Model the fold of this input.
Amino acid sequence: MSRTCKWVIRLSVALLAAVLLLALVAFIFPQEILCVDSGDVHADVIVLLGGGAGERPNRVAELYRAGVAKTILVSGAGDTDDNRRLLVHRGVPASAIQMERDSKTTKENAVFSMPLLDNLGAKRVIIVTSWYHSRRALRCFQHYGPDIQFFSRPSYYAYHRNEWSNERTARRIRAEYTKMFWYCIRFGVWPV
Done:
């Protein structure tokens, strides 16, 4: 075997080992990699992304009652009316809620929300989604709305491993890594 061939084999093995190590770290520490929480911030608008199990509107209502923003934009096809009802039920005035009903993906959430955020004069916006979706959602909004300052205040539902019932959350975490990679390749939305 030639010296070049041995070098290529060693390099390939080293790269494969590095990829496997990164994958192991990613699945052992998903909270540290996927979750972004901007902390105690105030904004003009809170954007509630559709999906989840009802925990997202709970988080938004909590933030609204704490006075972190005066307007809420509910984004996402399918559950916007349900999320609006949950918000109102939790004490958010209907007049404080705006709706974006057409988006079916995180990219569309960002793209379709931008004109509405512009109309609201938003300069600072908080994104609320599930903790494992918060990095990609935040980066997506930053990518498509570079003139707005975005923050993340995720829901922490099923954050700890002992809360990952029936592997449902574990599947969502694995899917999130795939989606992050796809958004990076397809749309140029980098996770860092």
Notes: The longest strand covers residues 45-49. The beta strands are 45-49, 71-75, 97-100, 124-128, 149-152.
